[in-house]
Design goal:
This protein has eight helices and two strands, in the order ααββαααααα. It is mainly alpha-helical.
Length: 253
């Protein structure tokens, strides 16, 4: 009888310990797993990368809308998106530097998709009839449609120019840091932008304005865009130093 009690007591103790071990494993394992998953993800995307990516997309959208305005600056015709758009080349270089070539390419395509969505939405909004109570004479509705109705051509031209030139910029930047030198960060920005800017300007000027304005105006837009974009490139070069240069020997793909 005494032996039976001892046996049952020992068995009960072992069962209790087994239950405790199971409960401990169930309560501790998720915590460990969450920590191991969150750590690398949090470190993979620096806060600065988010800021630069947001600035890149915003600058492209603002430039696309502002390009609807053709103004005279210094005696030459120029679309008003010219003064903000060139900064996107240096911003792209910074993104490339932080997260690598492939993610920079993803950003370029994503920004193009966002701009396309914008023009589709604005075109739909422009086509909607106005509320007579809010706009009795229809002047506001007419003005909105006049401005944003033809935006599709500007944005499509801009998207085409952006995708082609920014992908070229990506290849030029990556070639410079992997084949020429990993030093002289200012030179990699200057070289890659110098290759991409003429391509971007030629595509945009011809696709956006050919046939709708005289060729002389198209030529003036092209020349003025080149001057402004190269000037903005020179001014924005110091931005490349806001983030430490990675170890390119490990590959930044």
């Amino acid at each position: 009888m005494v032996w039976a009690i001892k046996y049952c007591g020992g068995r009960s103790t072992r069962l209790n310990k087994t239950k405790e071990n199971i409960l401990t494993a169930l309560t501790e394992q998720p915590v460990t797993r969450v920590k191991s998953q969150r750590g690398p993800v949090a470190k993979a995307i620096p806060a600065l990368a988010i800021v630069v990516i947001a600035a890149y997309v915003s600058a492209q959208m603002i430039a696309d809308i502002a390009s609807m305005k053709i103004a005279i600056v210094g005696g030459l015709a120029v679309d008003m998106g010219t003064f903000i758009y060139p900064i996107t080349f240096t911003l792209r270089d910074i993104v490339h530097k932080i997260v690598g070539k492939r993610k920079a390419q993803v950003l370029i395509v994503t920004a193009a998709a966002i701009n396309l969505l914008m023009v589709l939405y604005l075109a739909w909004a422009a086509a909607m009839p106005g509320d007579l109570l809010a706009d009795p004479d229809g002047s506001f509705t007419a003005a909105f449609s006049l401005v944003f109705g033809p935006l599709w051509r500007i944005v499509l031209a801009s998207i085409l120019a952006e995708v082609v030139s920014e992908l070229v910029d990506t290849e030029a930047y990556h070639w410079f840091v992997t084949k020429v030198t990993r030093n002289k960060q200012w030179a990699r920005v200057l070289v890659s932008n110098s290759v991409a800017i003429p391509i971007d300007t030629a595509i945009f000027a011809v696709v956006a304005f050919a046939g709708s304005v005289p060729w002389q105006v198209v030529w003036e837009i092209f020349i003025f865009n080149l001057i402004v974009k190269f000037a903005v490139t020179l001014i924005s070069i110091p931005l490349i130093y806001i983030y430490p240069d990675p170890d390119w020997s490990e590959g930044k793909k």
